[in-house]
From TrEMBL:
Residues 1-71 form the HTH merR-type domain. The keyword DNA-binding applies. InterPro entries: DNA-bd_dom_put_sf, MerR-type_HTH_dom, MerR_fam. Keywords: Coiled coil, DNA-binding, Repressor, Transcription, Transcription regulation. GO terms for molecular function: DNA binding; DNA-binding transcription factor activity. Pfam families: MerR_1. This is Transcriptional regulator. The keyword Electron transport does not apply. Residues 81-108 form a coiled coil. CDD domains: HTH_MerR-like.
Amino acid sequence: MKINDVSQKTGLPISTIRFYERKNLIPDTLLTRDVNNYRIFNEKVVDYLEDVKTLLSIGFTLNDLSTLNNQDCPLAYEEKVKFVENKLKEIENKQKKLEESKKILSEILVGKAHFKTKC
């Protein structure tokens, strides 16, 4: 499958797919080159890139994904679990801060917010 096909099936721009390749986010098992040096993608790359999109949407960064998928130094399963647990803690902390912000904003709307200075 050529890069245009991958782009159409995933909805990702070709430039993004190339960027992911340059950052080694696409495993070697999913990408080869033909005699003309064109990229030839394995059919499984579509599912893989959909997973990447999902992970990015829930707060993983490209660096996180690079760490998880590093082919030169693959993380052991336990390390990956720890990595994901840490990401979950980060999200829970963000969620707590958002709830606190929501409470303050609600108090402002009903006139019950207490500030040390006049706003």
